[in-house]
Amino acid sequence: MSARLEAAVPDSRLRVTIDRPPSSAASYVLYWMIAARRTHHSFGLQRAAAWAHELRKPLLVLEPLRAGHRWAADRHHVFVLQGMADHARRLETVGVRYLPYVEPRPGAGKGLLAALAERAAVVVTDDFPAYFLPRMLDAAARRLPTRLEVIDGNGLLPIRSTDRVFSRAHSFRAHLQRELPEHLARLPSPDPLAGHELGRARVPREVLRRWPMATARELRAPERLAAALPIDHAPAPVALAGGERAGAARLARFLDEGLARYPEQRNHPDEDAGSGLSPYLHYGHVSVHQVLFELAAREDWSPAQLGPPQGGAREGSWGTSEAAEAFLDELVTWRELGINYCTHRDDADRFEGLPAWARATMAEHACDPRPELYDLGALEAARTRDPLWNAAQRQLLREGRIHNYLRMLWGKRIYEWSSGGEEAMARMIALNDRWAMDGRDPNSYSGIAWVLGRYDRAWGPERPIFGKLRYMSSANTRRKLRLRDYLARYGEAP
Ligand SMILES: Cc1cc2nc3c(=O)[nH]c(=O)nc-3n(C[C@H](O)[C@H](O)[C@H](O)COP(=O)(O)OP(=O)(O)OC[C@H]3O[C@@H](n4cnc5c(N)ncnc54)[C@H](O)[C@@H]3O)c2cc1C
Question: Where in the chain are the domains?
């Protein structure tokens, strides 16, 4: 194994799930792009390119988009398709063959990966710990005829570098403060395809006949393509453009114009000072390493400036500006806390996965009278008697997002209006995964579980319905936050 291949990905990010030697008679190296949907800052693509170089074989990139999963819907499809258009352009420029497969009906793509893998020396793919991807990776590991490597580029901390499941942000932050310096010494290259000159992979005609790829023209009209598919059309496409180019532009704008306001204004819906990066991070159009690179360039920062471990305290560990530190705490501590849970437990989206004290307090208050009991349809249609909650739900329906602070309130009120925690959890997941552009993510399940006590502590005084769960109310939220413009924009039509 050459130094280039060894250096491509740290061992802590590499899982060989089918351990066979690469076949020298094969036609290409296959990169199966399923989570890190980008052509830059990608350990997966970097590993695949290094294998291609090692074996002197062309690289083939397959990016599938399935029709048959539970929440397949227009707005998500369009976002991913916009990313595929970027990849087609970029990979064409560097001479790498790219196969954008858009499944025309559930199950139609079955057999495509195996057919391509038959001619592959190695298959390299992305690790991702949520939604249907872990099951899909397990199935591939049982069936493929070739070497299969699963590469983790999810976070700054490799997801399998510890078996420990962290129950609080504080202990996880302390762990990060101790462990990150080692992992920040090995970052992915901004351009994993630099210097790649191995020719175009040849794909048998019968494969392309049976599984036709999306054309450049189809990718240029993603709304039309999605509308023709048997998926959920109610979540209509949103104004937010998907793809690595749109993601990079949003990141640059946030760092230039938004970051300085972030600590002071993030909580106020009228200021809307969040980065808006979560959909790009979810689909892999933006990588957390890329965010760190860009932030470091603007702050003139390097990992050498990391402060000493602070025992889990929030301030002082990054050695960046205060604003960057506040942002990094969300991006790294909170985001990777949810990734940590999903990696090691399979109950992230289940009531049984909540802490015992939270389940007990909800059980004790299960019979408390609720102020209202709405059904899922009323919630989904934003038809409650709480104008602030309705406004948040309308933002979700229209834009596929809810302002960060209001998202917590949104969840707390769903709990209050449901028969118990189990029903509340199922409803939050259904609404969030169906409508939110960043849904189906480890963060989705950690955010929803947070509403019901995960990563939190028991609070007093004990209250009706909530028991010891942290309480939030619309009245308090209205008092604390600047909301006038938000309510004007998403409030009831006059
Ligand atoms: C009920 C509920 C549901 C949620 N569902 C999702 C979801 O489906 N997908 C999702 O990505 N986040 C979810 N969150 C977490 C949080 O609301 C969003 O990550 C954040 O609002 C995204 O906006 P932003 O990109 O502007 O965040 P910024 O404030 O700019 O933060 C930067 C990044 O840090 C991460 N981050 C920020 N806040 C949190 C948090 N509280 N927990 C974990 N990571 C965080 C995200 O990756 C985010 O993109 C949920 C929270 C709650 C309370």
Answer: 1-153, 244-344, 351-490
